[in-house]
Amino acid sequence: MNYGFDTVINRFGTSCVKYDLLSEYGYPPGTIPMWVADMDFPAPPEVRKKLAELVELGMYGYTMMDEAYKDAVIGWFSSRIGYRPEREWIKITPGVVFAIGTAIRALTSPGDGVLIQRPVYHPFERLVVANGRKLVNNPLIYQNGKYSIDFNDFEHKLKTENVKLFILCSPHNPVGRVWSADELKTLSGLCRIYGVTVISDEIHCDFIYPGNRFVPYAALGEAALENCIICTAPSKTFNLAGLQLANIFIPNKTLRDKYSAELWRAGYGEPGFLAMHACRAAYEHGAPWLDALVKYLSGNLNLLRTALQEKLPAVKLVEPQGTYLAWLDFSGLGMDENEVVDILKHKAKLWFDKGSKFGPEGTGFQRVNIACPRSVMEEAVDRLTKNFER
Question: Which residue, 225, 257, 285, sits at the end of a domain?
């Protein structure tokens, strides 16, 4: 089926963060925005059809998480991801960032250590600091174009920094790693030894490239299940972020009760009407659309990879195993980050996310959202290679 991934849709003037902030951030007209993780593809047709029916209904009242919704969520993760969440595990929030902030407040006290692995999705650090917890960093190792975990440093930080909570990004944003079963088992084992609860942010779990296998934290065994909060959402997978909904899985009842109490303190109780039905429709009918999308993204990734190899070899693609985000190493150009951003902004007219946004360890890199029509990707790659050629 043709899902229209090649169609360019004008999103200007729709209060779209990705497009309508261009002038506010000083980007000139004609800039191609490839920064925030928001795809330029319409949601699956079944989702749009369901939303149209509900809008026509004309009543948008209080909504409950019913059994049909739970069935859809359980069905998706059972068939696509490889584990079966139980009904009682599921808690709904407006988003994964909201969920992580809730977990930080529910499971730690001011001054407790919360560990992250930079370079990493920047709200992690902001949430830790804003909630008065101690930020602890276990930097990823970047060597020979690949990222890995420094387990010795990880254990040392757990042992010495009063760490109570570890925020795992799996698959990892922005570096694109899909962690292996052995890596995850090692992390899980160390966290159990030192009494550290794990938040596993698995929002990108539906985007895995051929040759790689996503290992969900819930598949690591009973001991891991009893010590984790798993954050998922249809927002990245089906481009539904603006509808504000995430599904959070908490197997351990004690953790779940603490989390639920904090949700109530925040005043949050019911899911959004349109969001819940959109998620259900996506999980019930969206698999063929997603399969087609991942193939399309692979084509965009191949276009970028080939262009860099042939025309701009000084800029290296850190080969992504998952996500629709490309992590580019610009260090071979010998420019500082501000110089790179200036050329991207004023000459190439491209808006990427600069690497330092994800922590100092990301300096020298740029994150690029490749979830756009092929013609847009071709134009962006052409601008990139032409403006940095030497």
Answer: 285
Q: Nearest to residue 99, comparing CAs of 200, 195, 171? A: 200
Residue 82 scores a pLDDT above 80 = yes
Domain that holds residue 103: 48-285
pLDDT, residue 269, reads 87
What's the whole-model pTM score?
A: 0.97
Residue 242 belongs to domain with CATH number = 3.40.640.10
Task: Quote the pLDDT of residue 140.
Answer: 98
Instruction: Specify whether the CB–CB gap between 320 and 176 falls below 8 A.
Output: yes
Task: Give the residue-averaged pLDDT of 327-352.
Answer: 97
